[in-house]
Amino acid sequence: MILGVWVEEIKKRLKLLWEILTKPKEETMEEKPLYSLKGVGGQLEVYHEKLIIKHEGFFASFLSSHRGDKKIYYKNISSVQVKAAGLLNGYIQFSLNSGYESVSGVFEATQDENSLIFQPKSNELVKEIQSYIEKAIHDSQKSADAPVSIADEIGKLKKLFDEGAINQEEFEAQKKKLLG
Questions:
Q1: Are residues 123 and 55 in the same domain?
Q2: Angle subtended at Cα 57 by Cα 55 and Cα 62, rounded to the nearest 5 degrees
Q3: Distance between CA atoms of 81 and 115, rounded to whole angstroms?
């Protein structure tokens, strides 16, 4: 009897391990959001390199045609627009480098998949989120524009050599080319 229970427990654990090992990497590495904003008809989750807008629930289908999650990386965002909530709800909207948005009010923001409507009690949190994302956008653009030094390139070549991806002759030739 004890052996049978033990065997069943082993089977359960092996099944769980198999599920973990066969899940895509993105699903197994659950990152916790830095900020989470519950809006009207959706939610905004802010992470280190991206944000996710989740359009869900009755109000999402009632207010707009957008449903599901929209993942946006900061490097693809050109600006963040916020209209603070007052007597009416406010919105936070993300303009994409390759996108077009037309917002002249809260109603139009409900039609934009890159926007989230929020209530007055969330004004302070939205300000924090806006500041964080604007800094992240700036940092991602700054790092993309940063010049690559010769020392960095030689370091990369050395790593490739150490890993066996290139041989000594190729390493020396590329190093010579970099040094001029």
A1: yes
A2: 85
A3: 9
Same domain, 23 and 65: no
Both 94 and 44 in one domain: the answer is yes
Tell whether 120 and 38 lie within a shared domain.
yes
| Structure confidence at residue 50 as a pLDDT band (50, 70, 90) | very high
Enumerate the β-bridge partners of residue 39: 42
Residue 16: phi, psi to the nearest 5? -60, -45
My answer on whether 97 and 167 are in the same domain is: no
Residues 57 and 129 in one domain: yes
Residue 111, Cβ density class (10 Å: 0-12 exposed, 13-18 middle, ≥19 buried): middle
Domain assignment of residue 116, given as a range: 31-145
Distances (CA, A) of 176 to 21, 134, 136, 172: 44, 41, 37, 6
- Per-residue model confidence as pLDDT tens digits over 102-146: 555 555 655 788 899 999 999 999 999 999 999 998 888 776 555
* DSSP structure string for 47-79: -SSEEEEEE-HHHHHHH-S--EEEEEEGGGEEE
**What is the Cα–Cα distance from 113 to 11, expressed in whole angstroms?**
45
One-letter identity of residue 22: T
